[in-house]
Amino acid sequence: MKHLLLIASLFALAQPALAQTVTETDFTISVPNGSGDPVVESTTLVPLLEGTCYDWHLRLAKAKGAIEITELYTLPAAPESWGLGEDNTIVVADDQLSATSTLSLTPQDGWIASGWCVSKGDPEGDYSFEIRAGDKLLHRFEFELQKM
Asked: Residues of the signal sequence (predicted)?
């Protein structure tokens, strides 16, 4: 019963993002450069270089407490491996072309963010993130992973 009460309390604290308005967006990459400090910039062109990370960012008008969102990540072709552990909560589609994550994110100065990193065997091409609150599409990010 304590477990059930704890879960109910967490859901009560997490605010649905249904009423959220997105006021600003950004898409950034973080490219390792060998010196320990990666190069970070806003762009939708992601180098197909293992270890390069890419993140979506949304600034919300009404951001108090945790926000429940769903992230749909779509690839142009199936990756060599999703590299997910057994305890993950990410659901990969049967065709291996997309993955769905349910996230509870706490805004920092109104911003929420999440992302992925390039792994060996990731395909080149057009990708997207769809960020939803319930059935409401908050934003769609389109970007390209390209050999450089």
From this structure: 1-19
